[in-house]
Amino acid sequence: DQGRTYDRKIKQFILGVEIENNFSKDQILEMYLNRVDYGNHAIGIESAAEAYFHTTARGLDLAQAAMLAGLPNDPYVLNPLIHTVNQDVNPLAKQRQRTVLEAMVSNGHISQVKADAAFAEKLDLHSYTELDPNLDANYVDYVQQWLQEHYGSAYIKPGGWDVTTALIPSVQALAQQTVHDQVVKVEKQYNAHDGALVSMNPQNGEVYAIVGTFDPNDPYEGQVNMALQQIQPGSTIKLFTYTAALASHDYTMSTVIPDAGLSLKLDNSTYYSPKNYDRQSHGSCPPATAPTRTSTRRRWAASPTASPRSSSPTAPAPSPRWASITTPPRC
């Protein structure tokens, strides 16, 4: 949406002007370094120094500092822990380190001799998993993101806040183990690589657990919090589709819904023909048993927007208030 892009750019420009008018260059740089993502669940330079090198930001040497300085450009691709068995560090991260060192030489901060020595230094890198385990990383990520969006740096400075959440440690641990076991169980059969789970109380919106990856220690999948990504809901949408269909009164629990070819007109010249996951037809069945079967076409046929009482898919679906969709999540 070009309009939304322009709107965002204008807001960014205004925010930039406000920041420059209220903070010095050093303060802006400090805020950036304390909030930027360095990968491997390390947010801020202090966390990155501790995670990768088991030291403080002040204790970093030139080689270590140059390595970390390059990571925010793309923490996933430049993850220094992703490399072959005969390498000590990700070659792309090493190239980025060289870029940082050369920039320091060009700006007169260090000599070429020091830059070459730093680049040649062997880095003793560590995985963040060697630190005290944090089984709630995805939950904490979400809370920090929410606080940052609503309060900016106010929740960190001057002295920080005590934040109370609805997290239930036993539920979080069970959720993490369940997601891991289920992904491992089906990964070869269905080419599954990751999974996510959010446990909420639909009555009040409290969030009891957030699992964003099947294995937070995985150097690839563990870097993305899938629970916060905008992805297709898959079979989860069955519950909403069939409930909306029954609420429309066009269907009952005994209405026979066919699993047959279906073509929906999108505009004057475009049609959409949904396919089942296995590209097979599974016969007809009532809503009482349909949600247990993997059938995309049956779900489309059951939608009130394409009901047997309507010749075109235009009737609006009722709002599923029973699911507390309008209740905002509360951590």
Keyphrases for this structure?
elongated, 10 helices, two-stranded antiparallel sheet, 4 strands, 4% strand, mainly alpha, 331 residues
Explain what this protein looks like in three dimensions.
The chain is mostly helical and 331 residues long. It contains 10 helices and 4 strands. It has helices at residues 2-22, 25-33, 45-53, 62-70, 91-106, 112-120, 137-151, 169-190, 237-247, 296-302, and strands spanning 197-200, 207-211, 264-265, 271-272. The strands form 2 sheets. Strands 1-2 form a two-stranded antiparallel sheet. It has a two-stranded antiparallel sheet with strand order 3-4. Strand 1 (197-200) and strand 2 form a beta hairpin. It is elongated and about 80 Å long. It starts with a helix and ends in a 29-residue tail after the last helix. 20% of the residues are buried. Residues 304-327 have low confidence and may be disordered.
- Global Rg: 26 Å
Strand content: under 5%
Counted beta strands: 4
Instruction: Figure out the total of helices.
Output: 10
N-to-C span: 31 Å
- Poorly predicted sequence stretches spanning 5 or more consecutive residues: 304-327
In sequence order, what are the helices and strands, one letter per element?
A: HHHHHHHHEEHEEH
Overall mean pLDDT: 81
Outline:
This protein is mainly alpha-helical and 331 residues long.
List the helices and strands and how they pair.
Layout: H1 2-22, H2 25-33, H3 45-53, H4 62-70, H5 91-106, H6 112-120, H7 137-151, H8 169-190, E1 197-200, E2 207-211, H9 237-247, E3 264-265, E4 271-272, H10 296-302
Antiparallel strand pairs: 1-2, 3-4
Helix pairs in contact: 4-5, 4-6, 5-6
